[in-house]
Structures are given as C-alpha cells and as structure tokens.
Write a structure and sequence with these properties.
Largest sheet: 2 strands, antiparallel
Protein name: Prenyltransferase and squalene oxidase repeat protein
Keywords: Signal
Number of helices: 13
Distance between the termini: 75 Å
Strand content: 5-15%
Length: about 400
C-alpha cells in the first residue's frame, strides 16, 4: 500500500474504530457459593517457586471448576477455553469430557448454523451474528487456532465438505480490507505465514505483513477492544515472530516494539498497590474491589505483558505482584460467578507465565513453524554492519636458550 493509503488508514483508525464485540456483557457462569468479591488487599509476596505453585493451582481451578457444555455454551465461549488451554481443552458433552478441538472439527452446529463454512476462497469459521455467539471479531477464531498451534492441514467438517486451516488462512488473505479492525488477522496470519509474507486480496491489491503491522501501530489502544490489550498482544506476538526469524527490528516493526514498550511502562505506572492493574486499562489509574472487574482488567493486561516482556523482567517485583494478585484472586473466589471471556484471558496470561518459568513446559511467544521461503532483499532498510577491529597478533615467543 502507498503512503497516501497509509495516511488515510491512520485517519480512519484514529478517528473511528468500530468494535464488533468488546469485553462487556458476556455470559457468566452460575455461582456455586456465596463468597466475597472484595480484594483481600496486599499480601506477602511469594517466592518465585511458591508463586509458580499458586499459578498452577489457579490454572487447575479454571480447568476443573468451570465446565463448558457442548449443548449450552456458544462457539465464542468455547473458543476462549481453547485460547487458554490450547489443544488439550475439554468440554462436557452428555455428561462426559471430550476434546474441544476434536468436537468442533466434527461438523457441529450452533443456533442451527455450522461452526465452519466453505467459501469462494477456501473456508472460514462462522462469522459474527450477534453478541457472544460466533466470533466477535473478524478472524478471531483463526487467531485462537494459531495460539493453539493447530496445524495448517487440520480438517474441519462443513455442510459442503471438509476445509483445512490452510483454507481458512487463504480466505483471510483474500478478504483483507483497509478499513477494518486488524488485530486478529495480524495475530493469525503472522503465525501461519511469517513476518515476510505477501499476498493479493480478492481485488488484486498486494499486501505485506508490514501493512498489517502499520495498521495495528496506528490504532489508539484505549479505543480498541478490552482497553487495547488484544491489539497490543497481537502486536507483541507479531514482533516476537519477527525477532524469531533472526531479523533486526526496523521500520514498522521497530515502531511496533516502541509502542509495546510504551504500554508496558504505562501498565506499570498505573498498577495499584495490591498488584492489580488499572480498571480503566491505560486511560487512567483506578482500582476495583470487585473480583469480576479485577479478573477482567488485570487478566487482560497481564496476558499482554506475558507476551510482551523479555525473560529477564518476569521476576521483577511489580510483575510478580500482578501474577500473585490474579492467581490468589482466582483461588480465593473459586465459587464466584465469572465472565468466561475474562476468566480464560486471565488464565491464558497465567499459562504463558507458567510455560515461560517452568522447565517442563514450552511457551509459544510468537510463531516459529511458518514455512520459510526466500525473500527479496529490501532496499528500504539499511543494516549497519559493525566494524571489525583489526586482529591483534600474538607476541612472538622468546628465543630458545
């Protein structure tokens, strides 16, 4: 896309961002007991080893305490469970636990509509119909599949025959448009195609992954879904993938990193004394004594931070305080009503932390599995090679007496 096109995109995103489905008014689990939602306040910070145990305990509570059911809960809700627990996530079907990914791949329906559809350009997950039914944002389902690292050849049944993840990727490329939310498209496509990918949409216009990064850089975070945390998470995932490819940050990718660093520090600056993050995300500092509100805002913010922070910062006190607050909140309020979206985004943040800190797990911090294809040398990026100092000759050995 040309310069004028990019400038017009900047105006569109800054002036008006249409959010199809935000973080509010989501279905909630039925309460199992009448427990307090008030924060217990600051508590003594656990050691890294004890904190990891608390995190594991909170993850297991979410896995075992809240069971989504195949005939009761929507695709939007079940996708959030897959986001948190990846390919191992299980739901309840006729009283038995079944693998969620296998079940949604089998040609199931919701509200008399199929979960997946064939299209002119391949296939897709069923698009938005109403709040909290199918996906709430374009390509949101594909981004969840990317986070679960579902392979390109994985098959989904539709009323018109099978489709693969590769078909869904092809459809996403063809349906790309300039005046739309790009968060989940960037997240999904950078995972499956890599940071150097280019393609043509259905109108024949050429796209590069850089274009999606530019568009995401141009969004105003507070105007995006869930305070901009999803947009920042996708940007961090894309940046990590770019760095995984061995390339030096430059151009729009460097701008992405600068934006990520800015919002890391804003999250830290607006953190509350008890370790929770601002109820108003990055807009202003605020606190809440309500468990559900803390779960939503601290959970979403922590999820972004776990994708964005380098390893060396995970043991900083402010990060550990946030993780401790969130894990203990889930443990202390395990009988409380929860918003499934908030719960599973919070758990995703804790899972990423657990996977990064535990030698028994591997964290997915950006994609490494996309097809590696030779790319043309770019003339718009000048890479400065370090000057090599002249070799120092070793002194000659003394003469033998």
């Amino acid at each position: 896309m040309g310069l004028m096109c990019r400038l017009s995109l900047l105006f569109v995103f800054v002036s008006s961002i249409v959010i199809l489905n935000g973080c509010e008014n989501a279905p909630q689990a039925e309460p199992k007991s009448d427990t307090s939602t008030a924060s217990t306040g600051p508590r003594e910070l656990e050691s890294p080893e004890e904190l990891l145990k608390k995190v594991e305990q909170a993850i297991e509570i979410a896995r075992k305490q809240y069971h989504l059911e195949s005939d009761k809960h929507s695709p939007w809700e079940i996708y959030h469970g897959i986001l948190a627990f990846r390919k191992d996530y299980k739901i309840r079907k006729e009283g038995k636990d079944v693998n969620a990914l296998e079940w949604i791949s089998s040609g199931v329906f919701f509200d008399k509509e199929p979960w997946f559809q064939k299209t002119e350009f391949g296939g897709r997950a069923h698009p938005y119909t109403k709040s909290n039914a199918f996906e709430g944002h374009k390509n949101q389902s594909l981004a969840v599949l990317a986070m679960a690292d579902v392979p390109l050849d994985h098959t989904f049944q539709t009323p018109d025959g099978p489709i693969t993840v590769a078909d869904i990727v092809d459809n996403a490329k063809k349906e790309m448009q300039e005046n739309e939310e790009v968060t989940w498209s960037l997240w999904a496509l950078v995972h499956y195609l890599g940071p150097d990918a280019s393609w043509q949409d259905k109108k024949g216009e050429e796209w590069r992954m850089d274009d999606l990064v530019y568009m995401q850089n141009a969004t105003i975070s507070n105007d995006s879904a869930c305070g901009g945390t999803h947009a920042l998470f996708a940007l961090a995932y894309a940046r990590n993938t770019y760095q995984n490819s061995g390339q030096r940050l430059s151009g729009f990718w460097l701008e992405a990193d600068q934006k990520i660093q800015r919002y890391i520090e804003e999250a830290r600056a607006m953190q509350n004394f008890d370790g929770s993050f601002s109820y108003d995300y990055f807009f202003q500092k605020s606190a809440s004594n309500n468990f559900q509100e803390r779960l939503e805002t601290t959970g979403h913010t922590l999820e972004f931070l776990m994708m964005a922070l380098p390893d060396k910062r995970l043991n900083e006190e402010w990060v550990r305080k946030a993780i401790s607050l969130l894990a203990n909140d889930i443990i202390d309020n395990k009988g409380e009503t929860v918003d499934y979206s908030a719960l599973y985004h919070a758990i995703d943040g804790l899972v990423i932390y657990r996977n990064r800190m535990s030698p028994d797990h591997t964290a997915q911090l950006g994609s490494k599995s996309y097809p590696k294809t030779p790319t043309e040398s770019r003339t718009d990026v000048k890479v400065l090679k370090p000057v090599q100092p002249p070799a120092v000759k070793a002194p000659a050995p003394p003469p033998t007496p």
